[in-house]
Amino acid sequence: MHLAAPTFAQVLFWACAVTAVVMGALVVVLPNPVSSALALVMTLCAVAGLFLSLGAQFIAMVQVIVYAGAIMVLFLFVIMLLQLSGQGRRERTLLGPRLLGAVLGVALLAQLGAALATATYPSGPGDPAFFSPNNTLEVGRALYARYLLPFEVTSVLLLVALVGAVVLAKRKF
Amino acid sequence: MDFRYAALVPLFPLLGFLVNLFLGRRLSKGAVGLVACGSVLLSFLTAVGVFLGLRALAPDARQVVVPLFDWIQSGILRVPMGLLVDPLSVVMILVVTGVGFLIHVYSTGYMEHDEGYARYFTYLNLFTFSMLVLVLGSSFVTLFVGWEGVGLCSYLLIGFWYEKKSATDAGKKAFIVNRIGDFGFTLGMMLIFWTCGSLDFTEVFRVAGQRFQPGDAAVTTICLLLFLGATGKSAQLPLYVWLPDAMEGPTPVSALIHAATMVTAGVYMVARCHLLYLLSPTALLVVAVVGAATAIFSATIGLVQNDIKRVLAYSTVSQLGYMFLGLGVGAFTAGIFHLMTHAFFKALLFLGSGSVIHALSGEQDMRSMGGLKDPLRRTYTVFLIGTLALAGVFPLAGFFSKDEILWNAFQRQPALWVVGLAGAFCTAFYMFRVVYLTFYGEPRMSEEVRHHVHEPPSRMLVPLYVLAALSVVGGWIGLPLMPGGSPFSRWLEPVLGGAGPEAAAAAGGAAGHSLEILLMAVSLAVALLGILAAWNFYRRRPELPGRVGASLPGAYRTLLNKYYVDELYGAAVVRPFVALSRALWSFFDEVVVDGTVNAVGWAVRAAGSVVRQLQSGYVGGYALAMVLGLVAVLGFYFLR
Amino acid sequence: MVPISHYLWVSAALFCLGVTGVLVRRNAIVIFMCIELMMNAANLAFVAFARQLRSLDGQVVVFFVMTVAAAEVAVGLAIIISIFRHHESVDIDQVDLLRG
Question: Among A122, A125, A130, A123, which Cα is nearest to A56's?
Answer without folding.
Answer: A130
